[in-house]
């Protein structure tokens, strides 16, 4: 999906640390929306007023663990859990969508 001023990514981690995503994406020039440490201080140019307000008011890092897998400690059997995209991120994507 094409988004204005941003890129929607599917990132897979080996160790499960969000810090890895945050620091590496910022280094590559794609900081996470809402990341007050590694992100940009404001919305990029080219956004509508509504898009700019939504971007600047997003209350947290725009990260979501859609799926987590890990071995059970007592039997080493793998477990996978998943969760739908939260409503605040659905709204962010909807507002930034240029479709």
What does this entry show, briefly?
This protein has 99 residues and is α+β, with helices and mostly antiparallel strands. It contains three helices and two strands.
Order of SSEs? HHEEH
Amount of helix: 25-40%
Kindly report the average pLDDT value: 89
Taken as a percent bin, the fraction of beta residues is 5-15%
**How are strands sequenced across the largest beta sheet?**
1-2
In whole angstroms, the N-to-C terminal distance is 8 Å
Protein architecture, described:
By secondary structure, the protein is an alpha+beta fold. Helix content is 29%, strand content 10%. It has three helices and two strands; from the N terminus they run H-H-E-E-H. Strands 1-2 form a two-stranded antiparallel ribbon. Strand 1 and strand 2 (78-82) form a beta hairpin. The longest helix has 10 residues, at 18-27. The protein is elongated and about 55 Å long.
Secondary structure topology:
Elements: H1 18-27, H2 49-57, E1 67-71, E2 78-82, H3 87-96
Antiparallel strand pairs: 1-2
Task: Looking at this protein, list some descriptive labels.
2 strands; 3 helices; alpha+beta; 29% helix; elongated; single chain; two-stranded antiparallel sheet; 99 residues; 10% strand
């Amino acid at each position: 999906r094409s988004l204005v001023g941003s890129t929607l990514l599917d990132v897979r981690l080996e160790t499960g640390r969000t810090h890895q995503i945050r620091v590496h994406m910022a280094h590559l020039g794609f900081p996470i929306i809402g990341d007050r440490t590694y992100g940009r201080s404001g919305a990029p140019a080219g956004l509508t007023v509504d898009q700019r307000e939504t971007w600047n008011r997003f209350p947290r890092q725009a990260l979501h663990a859609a799926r987590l897998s890990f071995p059970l400690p007592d039997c080493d059997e793998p477990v996978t859990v998943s969760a739908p995209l939260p409503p605040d991120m659905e709204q962010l994507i909807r507002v930034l969508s240029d479709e």
